[in-house]
Write a sequence for this structure.
């Protein structure tokens, strides 16, 4: 093998995943890994395969070392309020009303007990605090929350990437500012540079310049970022190999009269400083590490190998923090650089001299790699973003030095700095035009829904086997290519299912058959943007573009709060509302939006039965006499029945359960045991399983729990178990929970 470190890296990554996900299959995975390594060594008559095994074992060890170990089990994830004291190392905004601070904690106080274990806490509280401030915060310590739905933002892995151990919301008290803090000095320097950018650049461009020079993205508008991302050039807004190589080239040019080793040493020192100034993003660390490898090679007269150096940098970063593997920037950065290395080897093998052909090959292959990553994370891609990359990326090599020169001049003369920046501003205007043209075509965006991770990995394998075939021209690589193409065509069945989404107390149920999609309620609890953050992402994740029926069982906000966002993003045919429903302002907005979008509005009749498709029926039950404008629904999908009685009280349960409501699965009322979920009602429904939507991990209604336990009814909680899926199988059904369920769900 030309680059054995690549093999070690692959087995190291397998070890990381094994350490986190596959412990129950320990012996099976271990046997497969050892077998592959030994077969490789025997075929190649060397001992490199043994190092693969070492890489695998090291991956397991590193992940186990970094796996969450609760330092304070008696105070974390409890109702106990504690006081933490520490120094702010990062400051930002959670929203317009509160700040978000990452704090290196020196002391935690619980009553008279004091803990001095070092940890890092993300604190949410009042605005107006800064990096270097020492604070005291009082609140409840929580571990970072894991995803509750497959399409949620992965806050757990994000926290692990930032090395955040706990989160806390509470009152914050400022104590002092440590003027000698390294974090504070770095932040001051960064702010001074940003203040120059802020003054010399127009408002519409300062966010882009700050992102490209300092890695500071807070001032980039959502519209600009979305435009660049849709055009496939958002990578120029993150400091990566492109930017680092330009900076390195400028420094080496300025030092060209010095001894080469001295120039390399100065470059190494500057790159370490620049990496810290820009926030030490994974892509920046990767690029700087590779610069280090290259410069040490020059200093010690060693030949530089791009793929080997990239593998070394990747391995070093993953040893430092194995959770980088979940960082999108890390995936883009290393994926694209590995691709560049492969592209150059193909160019060298076929002796391609034409510069345009070289540019096209490299850009095209990078586009393939980046599209696979984009599709996995964002469920869509732009098939023609290669055009925007071929135009914009080469221009950055000229624009970035202009920005640096303008900032340097601006430190002495604001007027001259603004003049020097003019060419860069014109270039950014040109970039906007290119992005708008590329994204404005009818075929510029394909939304395909979530692609299983195993499919993405298989497609990467196809690229690798094609690369090997192109280099060696050996037909043996055609066989795995055909096998991988066949595996890519295998898709899991995503139909004949009922999904109860996890959205705190808000209710939202989605029923999907092959040619049908129905939604029951789309609530909003408190300030949570259920429509924007839960319902709409669900539709994008499963590539749902049309909804046949939306059932609104009441006009309460926790029932309808997310429906407007749904109607703005997905086409709907019908909405069903209660006949005597209370016309709230929110409901009127929904009805107006429905009329605007040509959605048919229907008023549900008493005990009306609706046949959606051949194997799906709804039966609507008015609560009371119907005068309250609320109704419950019984869903019959194939051989499973699911009762959604809405939030009815004991007073109306008696009337409700006389109307043939026996069901396999029951959605419990939100009201406590004194108001609803009576024994008579549950006895009449006779469910085998029950689901509850709460804002608490532990459902606390002891009386209801006792009834469920007596009748041997399984209880699922969307807060603790995440999205609950009821799937129909041969003459029956099965229930899957997203959290703690099938560990392979992440990979399918």
């Amino acid at each position: 093998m030309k680059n054995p470190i690549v093999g070690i890296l692959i087995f190291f990554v397998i070890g990381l995943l094994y350490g986190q996900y596959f412990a129950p299959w320990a012996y099976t995975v271990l046997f497969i890994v050892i077998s592959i390594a030994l077969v490789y060594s025997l075929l190649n008559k060397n001992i490199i395969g043994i190092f693969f095994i070492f890489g695998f074992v090291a991956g397991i060890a590193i992940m186990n070392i970094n796996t969450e170990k609760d330092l304070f089990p008696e105070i974390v994830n409890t109702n106990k309020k504690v006081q933490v004291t520490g120094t702010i190392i990062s400051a930002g905004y959670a929203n317009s009303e509160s700040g978000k601070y990452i704090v290196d904690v020196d002391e935690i106080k619980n009553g008279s007990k004091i803990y001095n274990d070092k940890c890092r806490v993300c604190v949410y509280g009042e605005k107006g605090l800064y990096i270097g401030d020492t604070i005291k915060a009082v609140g409840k310590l929580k571990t970072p929350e894991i995803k509750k739905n497959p399409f949620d933002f992965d806050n757990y892995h994000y926290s692990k990437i930032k090395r955040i151990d706990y989160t806390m919301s509470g009152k914050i008290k400022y104590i002092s500012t440590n003027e000698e803090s390294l974090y504070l000095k770095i932040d001051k320097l960064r702010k001074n540079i940003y203040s120059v950018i802020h003054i010399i650049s127009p408002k519409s461009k300062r966010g882009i310049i700050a992102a490209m020079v300092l890695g500071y993205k807070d001032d980039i508008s959502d519209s600009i970022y979305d435009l660049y991302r849709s055009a496939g050039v958002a990578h120029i807004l993150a400091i990566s190999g492109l930017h680092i190589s330009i900076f390195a080239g400028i420094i080496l040019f300025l030092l060209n009269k010095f001894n080469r080793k001295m120039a390399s040493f100065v470059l190494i020192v500057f790159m370490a400083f620049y990496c810290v100034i820009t926030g030490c993003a994974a892509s920046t660390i990767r690029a700087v590490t590779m610069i280090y490898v290259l410069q040490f090679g020059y200093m010690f007269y060693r030949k530089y190998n791009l793929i080997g150096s990239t593998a070394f940098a990747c391995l070093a970063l993953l040893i430092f923090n194995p959770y980088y593997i979940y960082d999108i920037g890390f995936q883009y950065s290393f994926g694209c650089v590995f691709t560049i290395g492969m592209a150059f080897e193909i160019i060298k093998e076929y002796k391609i001299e034409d510069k345009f052909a070289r540019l096209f090959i490299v850009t095209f292959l990078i586009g393939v790699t980046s599209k696979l990553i984009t599709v996995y994370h964002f469920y869509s891609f732009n098939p023609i973003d290669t055009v925007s990359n071929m135009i914009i990326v080469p221009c950055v090599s000229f624009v970035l030095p202009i920005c640096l020169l303008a900032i340097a001049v601006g430190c002495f003369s604001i007027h001259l700095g603004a003049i020097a920046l003019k060419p860069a501003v014109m270039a950014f205007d040109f970039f906007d035009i290119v992005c708008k043209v590329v994204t404005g075509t009818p075929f510029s965006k394909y939304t395909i829904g979530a692609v299983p991770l195993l499919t993405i990995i298989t497609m990467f394998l196809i690229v690798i086997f094609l690369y090997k075939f192109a280099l060696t021209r050996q037909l043996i690589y055609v066989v795995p290519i055909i096998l991988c193409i066949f595996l890519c065509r295998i898709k899991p069945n995503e139909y004949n299912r009922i999904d109860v989404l996890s959205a705190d107390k808000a209710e939202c149920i989605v029923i999907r058959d092959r040619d049908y999609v129905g939604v029951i309620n789309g609530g909003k609890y408190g300030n949570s943007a259920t429509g924007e953050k839960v319902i709409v992402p669900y539709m994008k994740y499963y590539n749902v573009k049309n909804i046949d029926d939306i059932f609104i069982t009441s006009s309460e906000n926790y029932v309808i709060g997310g429906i407007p966002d749904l109607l703005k993003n997905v086409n709907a045919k019908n909405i069903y509302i209660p006949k005597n429903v209370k016309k709230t302002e929110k409901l009127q907005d929904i009805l107006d939006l429905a009329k605007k979008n040509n959605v048919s509005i229907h008023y549900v009749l008493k005990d009306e039965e609706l046949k959606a498709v051949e194997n799906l029926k709804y039966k609507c039950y008015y609560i009371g006499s119907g005068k309250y404008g609320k109704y419950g629904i019984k869903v019959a999908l194939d051989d499973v029945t699911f009762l959604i009685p809405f939030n009815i009280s004991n007073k109306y349960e008696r009337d409700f359960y006389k109307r043939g409501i026996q069901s396999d699965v029951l959605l419990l009322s939100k009201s406590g045991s004194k108001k609803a979920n009576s024994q008579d009602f549950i006895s009449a429904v006779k469910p085998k399983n029950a689901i509850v939507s709460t804002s608490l991990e532990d459902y606390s209604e002891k009386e209801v729990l006792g009834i469920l336990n007596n009748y041997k009814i399984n209880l699922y909680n969307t807060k603790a178990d995440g999205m609950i899926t009821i799937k129909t199988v041969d003459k029956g059904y099965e229930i899957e929970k997203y959290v703690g369920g099938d560990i392979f769900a992440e990979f399918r």
Observations:
- The chain has five domains: 4-66, 82-178, 186-447, 453-488, 497-746.
